[in-house]
TrEMBL record:
Organism: Kocuria rosea
Swiss-Prot/TrEMBL keywords: Cell inner membrane, Cell membrane, Membrane, Transmembrane, Transmembrane helix, Transport
Localization annotation: Cell membrane
GO cellular component terms listed in the entry, alphabetical order: plasma membrane
Superkingdom field: Bacteria
InterPro entries: ABC_transp_permease
Region (Disordered): 1-26
One Pfam family, short name: BPD_transp_2
Protein name: ABC transporter permease
Amino acid sequence: MTTNATLDRPPAPDSGAPATGDRPRRFRPRNLWQTVGPFGVFVALFALVAVLQPAFVGGGGLRILAVQAASILLIALGQAMVLHVGSIDLSNAAMAILSAIVLALTLGPLAGGGLVVSIGLVTVIGAINGLLVAFAQVPSFALTLGTLGIVQAASLLASDATTVYASGNSELLAPLFGTAIAGLATAFWVGVLLAVVLWAVLRFTRVGQGMTAVGLNETGAIFSGLRTRLLKVVAFTISGFLAGVAGVMIIAQAGAASSFGLGSDLLLPGIAAAMVGGTAITGGVTNPVNVVFGALTIALTPIAAAAVGVTSQAQSLVYGLVIIVAVALTMGRNRNRIVK
């Protein structure tokens, strides 16, 4: 006889194989997108640019692209980790600017200690975001929108609403963009390495698998005994940390920071890169390695848009269309689920 406990028990995690008597899963375009789509889109877009603007490819275009994608990649990876648990972080790009400003102010007097201060500060802000989302039950969209305003105000105050230049010890950051591996800036490879680490965390660790469970079915994760609140805090903390590293890249590249300079427009490209990289806005589906190709694609998008005659003023329109298409391809749908 079937008991109520049996009926209320959450479904067991999917093992990847169809259960006995179940029909085989039908192929869905969304599944193809999440596996090879990001790489394929980047290759197709790069080929288009190569045909329309051969001088870009011949003139070291891939090297330039890697430089432009370095900061976008870090913001996108942080965004992907938060999206993975079913939330969103609208403040991580602003945190990157704050980190860059703090680093510019402290690199001279503190040397390597400035790195610790700048990255540590925004990592703490990310953790606070996570604590408020998890324990105060504040919706992540509203919370991080508020944090965005607070962090922007802090950046203006810290910089006195002007450009802040790194006054000393710049040689500590010089190798990030002054040296190359396989022809691409070391800064880009730092992002790739972090993407691989995050991929391994999600795939092989209990914390990563727990984050996936939260993103796929938070109610089921709670019934399974997972510490869902802690896992959300971890996701937001990672986002803050990666924003701090992005701030380091801004100083390494430009030697200065301001609330309106390099990196001030990373939010929309970062979200777009995460989604083009196959991250589902509904949560639970993320491949950080694919986010690398998402970042490269987004960095290449303005160049491709210019090649086909789209003006620079319309770039936000292009990013918006990219996000809409990426969301349509990555989100899951079934008859019993309501799309909000």
